[in-house]
């Protein structure tokens, strides 16, 4: 298996392969490194090749994790991040190498572009799980690092704000809980969902006072533009063009009063696309969310849902107007999903964790891939645990995800706990049109309910406030039957069970050997070292030390008990920054000592796996329960 190592670095630098991309906007911007130092950077290039340089020296830089490092040429002649942070002292030799490095970057990008164009990569597209555009406008909101987000406040001549700007700013950014954000602020929600990779800072400006509210109930998007024009003297719009493409990444409006989903005659919270220019910057995408819910400052759930769209996610309820006709006719995830009705849990104050598919699509988690017989222990999503997945070998955009929800933290108000199983069948054109779950017979983000229900929302024809309370306050018995084992004690998900573990075309998934069914059996909750896990067997594997994989809260190293003597049958050799693993079966992961997975892939049919890491240091190699540590110099 050929490891194309430079591809992650390309995406970290924001390089686009589309022929519609514009030249990089060369205005410098300040980047704060995790150690507190700052460096001025700028983007360089055109539609065929983009890269980032340090302004002071012209040296190309590469982002690894949360930091920018000077680029270098490794022993294999490839471009890689050096060990020196951008902004540190630059030697004369390094300055002289800048031109050669830039030339190599351009050459490698041309090669990668050709690989992607031919479709020869066996993995899903880089935008897997995200719509590429809204109304033809690219979705390109930056999803990693310290990202400034523009928020404006708008009230009306007949409807003023109930809460002051300072309170709303805390609602967005507070590091502590409060009466109106009892589980956490908007910022804390997204920091926790991204495992610290995405750290939004919401800058709140205002307040603009518009005319009567009734004038804008069907014209909220234009109101955002009007208000931003009024407030533009207060705002440096360049700060909110994080990717340097000449467009403000997004404008969020908080408007006074209630929302149309709660009260008629007011603005309905939504995302929209506009086409305006303010202070030389294009304004394309906007979002708007209400202030109040039943007279109080609303919970963060609606904003988290709408901001999910800003990040690239679609709606997971039906948007086609084909609403369910009966209580047994529902086919979307309802309250299990923040991109469906989950944003209303605890009346919006405690939206649930994003599901495994959403975290994968946003690039915030890389699920553990099932490709052999083994027993897997999953830590809960609220404990920042990881998920597991299996792909359709013939269609890498069809994926089944397995994750543990435990009714703690952000998942406290779920109506059940256990293993949630999702079947995702991605099609970019469907995502682009925001029609993800519009087809009853082919929902593309489907929760596989353990109790066999077609859906899980008996509220459809139920107008009882008390019944809504059972859902929103974690006591609904119908929803409790959806996880595995759940209230029906369903402990298996196999090719012959009901529901059955099948592809969208009705045939069976298979493991890497293309003959073994990945039947999921012996689903149970288990405790290990004081921590709770959901455990299950894949393809009938027994639960032994040799067959057990623990996918823990660090998403990487929790299954490694002894990294010095647990190498077992693996055959490992290295040469410079190259690692060759023999006697491997299935997935091989390589971690740095921080626990970050830097390279993953599957061994070939002969049990061999080769990779090249970015820089010298100690690395941990895991293949199932076989683990070894290597030092590369």
Characteristic terms for this protein:
32 strands; disordered N terminus; 633 residues; alpha+beta; 11 helices; six-stranded antiparallel sheet; 30% strand
Molecular structure report:
With 633 residues, this protein is α+β, with helices and mostly antiparallel strands. The chain contains eleven helices and 32 strands. The strands form eight sheets. The chain has a six-stranded antiparallel beta sheet with strand order 1-2-3-4-5-6. The protein is globular, with a radius of gyration of 25 Å.
The secondary-structure class comes to alpha+beta
Give the overall average pLDDT: 80
Radius of gyration: 25 Å
* Number of distinct beta strands: 32
Largest sheet: 6 strands, antiparallel
Continuous helix count: 11
Helix content class: 10-25%
The coarse overall form would be globular
Low-pLDDT stretches are: 1-27, 45-49, 109-126, 456-465, 554-566
Taking strands numbered 1, 2, ... along the chain, how are they ordered across the largest sheet?
1-2-3-4-5-6
Percentage beta strand? 25-35%
From the N-terminal CA to the C-terminal CA, the straight-line distance is 23 Å
Topology:
Blueprint: H1 7-12, E1 29-32, E2 38-45, E3 50-54, E4 60-64, E5 67-73, E6 79-85, H2 92-96, H3 98-118, E7 133-134, E8 137-138, E9 145-156, H4 165-173, H5 186-193, E10 198-210, H6 220-231, E11 247-248, E12 251-255, E13 270-278, E14 281-290, E15 292-293, E16 296-297, H7 301-311, H8 356-361, E17 368-369, E18 374-378, E19 388-392, E20 395-405, E21 418-425, H9 428-432, E22 445-448, H10 465-472, H11 477-480, E23 520-528, E24 531-538, E25 548-551, E26 571-575, E27 578-582, E28 587-592, E29 597-602, E30 609-612, E31 617-623, E32 626-632
Parallel strand pairs: 9-10, 9-12, 11-14, 12-14, 17-19, 18-25
Antiparallel strand pairs: 1-2, 2-3, 3-4, 4-5, 5-6, 7-8, 13-14, 15-16, 18-24, 19-20, 20-21, 21-22, 23-24, 26-27, 27-30, 28-29, 28-31, 31-32
């Amino acid at each position: 298996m050929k490891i194309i190592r430079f591809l992650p670095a390309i995406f970290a630098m924001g390089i686009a392969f589309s022929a519609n991309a514009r030249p990089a906007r060369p205005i410098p911007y300040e980047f704060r490194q995790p150690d507190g130092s700052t460096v001025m950077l700028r983007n360089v290039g055109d539609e065929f090749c983009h890269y980032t340089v340090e302004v002071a020296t012209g040296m190309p830089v590469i982002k690894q994790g949360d930091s920018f490092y000077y680029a270098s040429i490794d022993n294999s002649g490839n471009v890689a991040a050096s060990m020196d942070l951008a902004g540190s002292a630059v030697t004369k030799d390094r300055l002289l190498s800048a031109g050669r490095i830039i030339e190599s970057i351009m050459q490698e990008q041309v090669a990668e572009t050709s690989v992607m164009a031919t479709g020869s990569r066996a993995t899903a597209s880089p935008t897997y799980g995200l719509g590429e555009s809204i109304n033809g406008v690219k979705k390109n909101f930056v999803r990693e690092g310290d990202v400034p987000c523009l928020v404006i406040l708008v009230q009306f001549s007949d409807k003023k704000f109930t809460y002051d700007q300072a309170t709303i700013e805390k609602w967005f950014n507070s590091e502590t809980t409060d009466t109106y954000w009892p589980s956490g602020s908007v910022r804390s929600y997204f920091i926790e969902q991204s495992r610290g990779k995405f750290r939004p800072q919401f800058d709140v400006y205002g307040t603009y006072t518009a005319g009567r509210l009734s004038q804008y109930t069907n014209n909220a998007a234009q109101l955002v533009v009007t208000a931003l024009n009024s407030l533009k003297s207060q705002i440096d719009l360049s700060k909110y063009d994080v990717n340097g493409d000449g467009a403000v990444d997004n404008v969020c409006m908080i408007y006074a009063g209630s929302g149309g989903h709660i009260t008629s005659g007011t603005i309905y919270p939504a995302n929209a696309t506009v086409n305006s220019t303010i202070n030389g910057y294009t304004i394309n995408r906007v979002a708007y969310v209400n202030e109040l819910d039943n007279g109080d400052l609303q919970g963060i759930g609606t904003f988290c849902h709408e901001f999910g769209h800003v990040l690239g996610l679609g709606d997971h309820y039906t948007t086609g107007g084909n609403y369910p006709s009966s209580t047994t006719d529902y086919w979307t995830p309802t309250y299990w999903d923040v991109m469906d009705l989950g944003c209303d849990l605890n009346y919006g104050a405690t939206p649930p964790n994003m599901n495994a598919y959403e975290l994968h699509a946003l690039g915030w988690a890389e699920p553990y891939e099932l490709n052999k017989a083994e027993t897997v222990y999953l830590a809960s999503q609220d404990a920042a645990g990881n998920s597991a997945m299996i792909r359709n070998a013939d269609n890498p955009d069809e994926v089944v995800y397995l994750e543990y929800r435990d009714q703690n933290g952000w998942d406290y108000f779920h109506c059940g706990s256990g293993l949630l199983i999702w079947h995702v069948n991605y099609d970019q054109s469907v995502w682009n049109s925001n029609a993800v779950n519009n087809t009853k017979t082919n929902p593309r983000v489907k929760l596989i309910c353990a109790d066999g229900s077609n859906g899980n929302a008996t509220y459809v024809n139920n107008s009882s406030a008390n019944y809504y309370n059972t859902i929103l306050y974690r006591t609904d018995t119908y929803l409790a039957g959806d996880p595995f084992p759940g209230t029906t004690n369903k402990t298996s998900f196999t090719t012959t069970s009901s529901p059955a573990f099948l592809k969208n075309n009705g045939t069976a998934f298979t493991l890497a050997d293309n003959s073994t069914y990945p039947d999921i059996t012996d689903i149970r909750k288990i405790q290990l070292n004081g921590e709770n896990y959901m455990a299950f067997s894949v393809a009938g594997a027994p639960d032994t030390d040799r067959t057990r994989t623990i996918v823990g809260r660090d998403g990487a190293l929790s299954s490694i008990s002894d990294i010095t003597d647990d190498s077992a049958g693996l055959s490992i050799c290295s040469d410079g920054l190259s690692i060759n693993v023999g006697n491997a079966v299935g997935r091989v992961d390589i971690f740095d000592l921080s626990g970050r997975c830097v390279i993953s892939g599957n061994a070939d049919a002969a049990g061999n796996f080769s990779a090249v890491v970015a820089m010298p240091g100690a690395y941990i190699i895991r293949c199932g329960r076989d683990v070894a540590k290597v030092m590369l110099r």
